[in-house]
Amino acid sequence: MKRCFLLAVSGLLIALLAGCYTVPETGRQAFNIVPVGEELSLGEQEFLQIKKQEKVSQDPVCNAQVQRVGMRIAKAVGSDLPSAKWEFVVFESNDVNAFALPGGKVGVYTGLLKLAETDNELATVIGHEIGHVTARHGAERMSQGLVAGLVGAAVTVGTQDSRNRDLWRVAYGLGAAGVMLKYSRDEESEADYIGLRYAARAGYDPNAAVTFWRKMSASNQKGADVPILFRTHPSDAQRIANLQRWIPQVMPLYERARQEYE
Ligand SMILES: [Zn+2]
């Protein structure tokens, strides 16, 4: 038992020393010991599962819009997600929801398309969701969980694979109800900043981020049926104030890209 404990502690030290990831666009140094390859394959498996569970929309207008905006954002993301195999899928559902998984797997619900009426607003949402992925927020949580679990691993018996998978699902907030991760305020703010830059670099008006989150706020205040996206990405006045403060910084990116897409 004593030896196991020592092994766990030395593993912990190695992990702490080795695990650092520089978040693109913000430059934040994040603790991350999840191998990118593992994250990608888990993201792919999960996306396959969701496509089996949910109804994939065949609506040509919705699909064309999500592909059009998605591929432009993907181009703007570029080397921030080097091993992406981009996929943009529309799900038929009144839920106001969208998500992105590692590897560039993006799902948008038709309910969200009714609220995010323009390409600019849709770019805000897709950019933000991909921001969580390129920042590797899920893997960061999983890393913290793995380190916490290392000491525990010395005393519990179980297959490493199944434990990792459970940990991953918890870190990403995945469950029977689909992707339902509640992000922290810091994670939300970082994804907002990253997403704003992606949308601007893709030639979408960054001001749409403010109109979109105001609409989300307004629909939340109506009370009865709070959009899923709002439940998992809580908004407040501070968020909109931050976005307004960052918009002038990204306007030159937007102006340059807009000429390219005109
Ligand atoms: Zn978010």
What labels describe this entry?
9% strand, three-stranded mixed sheet, 262 residues, 11 helices, 7 strands, two-stranded antiparallel ribbon, binds zinc ion, mainly alpha
Verbal overview:
The chain is mainly alpha-helical and 262 residues long. It has one domain. It is built from 11 helices and 7 strands. The strands form 3 sheets. A 3-stranded mixed beta sheet has the order 3-5-4. It has a two-stranded antiparallel ribbon with strand order 1-2. Strands 6-7 form a two-stranded antiparallel sheet. α3 packs across α5 (119-134), α5 (119-134) packs across α8 and α8 (185-201) runs parallel beside α11 (237-261). It is globular, with a radius of gyration of 19 Å. The termini are far apart. The model is unreliable at 151-158 and 175-179 (pLDDT under 50). The chain binds zinc ion.
- Overall form: globular
Q: What bound compounds does this protein have?
A: zinc ion
Low-confidence runs:
151-158, 175-179
Tell me what portion of residues adopts beta-strand conformation: 5-15%
How many separate helices? 11
For the report, how would you describe the main beta sheet? 3 strands, mixed
Helix content: 55-70%
User: How many strands appear in the DSSP assignment?
Assistant: 7
Mean pLDDT: 84
Spatial gap, N to C terminus: 67 Å
One letter per element, helices H and strands E, the order comes to: HEEHHEEEHHHHEEHHHH
Could you give the order of strands across the largest sheet? 3-5-4
Q: Measured on Cα atoms, how large is the radius of gyration?
A: 19 Å
Taken together, the total number of domains comes to: 1
Structural class, by secondary structure, is mainly alpha
